[in-house]
Amino acid sequence: MKLAKIQSRLAASLSAIGQVMAKILEEKGEGGERNIKHYIETLNDTERLITGVIHSESISRRELVSFDLNKNWKTTLTESPLDTWLFGEDLEGRLKATKEL
């Protein structure tokens, strides 16, 4: 589960960046007249980079988990959308449908 731990740390980093962005926007709303556009753009770019790493790590984890599965199930798993769960929320339903086919 080394990849999962890396992803957890990256997610915590995203959360921290989001908190900084919220604080900057809050200060701007309170009349802070500094040029914050550059800071927001930099933080946003950083979030995009981290999100890309998380996505890549999710794909790697899926490949590792599905390595020894039969071809039909492997195809079903690797074509599943990434969401809250590594193989999607309705994994059981998709596997049942694959088995029936």
List the defining traits of the structure above.
101 residues; mainly alpha; elongated
3D architecture notes:
- The chain is mainly alpha-helical and 101 residues long.
- It is 74% helix and 0% strand.
- The protein contains four helices and no strands.
- The chain has helices spanning 2-29, 37-65, 71-78, 91-100.
- The mean pLDDT is 79.
Strand share of the residues? under 5%
Series of secondary-structure elements, N-terminal to C-terminal: HHHH
Number of helices, counting only DSSP H or I runs of 4 residues or more: 4
Main beta sheet: strand number and arrangement? none
Low-confidence stretches: none
- Strand segment tally: 0
**Computed structural class:** mainly alpha
Which overall shape is indicated by the principal axes computed on the Cα atoms? elongated
Mean pLDDT: 79
